[in-house]
Design goal:
This protein is 45% helix and 19% strand. By secondary structure, the chain is α/β, with parallel strands linked by helices.
Length: 259
Amino acid sequence: MRNVLKKVECAEYVLRVILQKKNLKIVDVIVQQDHKNLQGRSAVLDCVALDGEGNRFNVEVQQGSGGASPKRARYHSGLLDMNTLKPGEAFACLPESYVIFITRDDVLGEHLPIYHVDRMIREVNREFADQSHIIYVNASMQDDSELGRLMQDFHCKTADEMHSSVLADRVRELKESQKGVENMCDVMKKLYEEGVEEGIEKGMEQGQTEAILELLSELGPVPQELADKIRSGKNREVLRRWLKAAAKAESLEAFERQL
């Protein structure tokens, strides 16, 4: 799907169906771009599309529910905004944004094919017009509507089974042409390397965590609350600092004061 959405016409078709905007014109598509947050966690977004007015659309295709949590949707929305305005540019220039999760299962559990999430002013039941939108598409709903047929296409293994000629042509290109097959092999290799790198990082984090707890255990029984806090640490620089502090600490209390 990463390669399918790389083609502007395919991303445009998918967005037109989901947003019910037949005249939507996508002018650029960026896949797997690292959206930076210099003060915290960055994220690689599956697909970011731009229309002629500069509005941004982040499309994420998720197999598991954990990859489409409400807080992840919120964070993606924030990253889109942080990577949009230039220094000194007015907030009024911030374009409309859409974070769209296409999920295998019904993540929000209301048995609907699509969910539109927008901020509201509760006291007056009126939309808070920040032009930031989150949409969940339930791919398990595959009825005979336009959206349902699109979700059927997402599950097809061959181009001949697909309803959309736009998506089918792209799938044929990727699966049946020499160039497409080579491209898919390159993507699979990159995915494998990303998985290996992520596994190494997780292993390093786990190793540092256990080393910290082992050092602290020499000072006495480690309180469960403190152990949980250390195990939840994900920032490698913070873990390094904690490891040094644990090695030098003369007591558990002295260590906690440096957290």
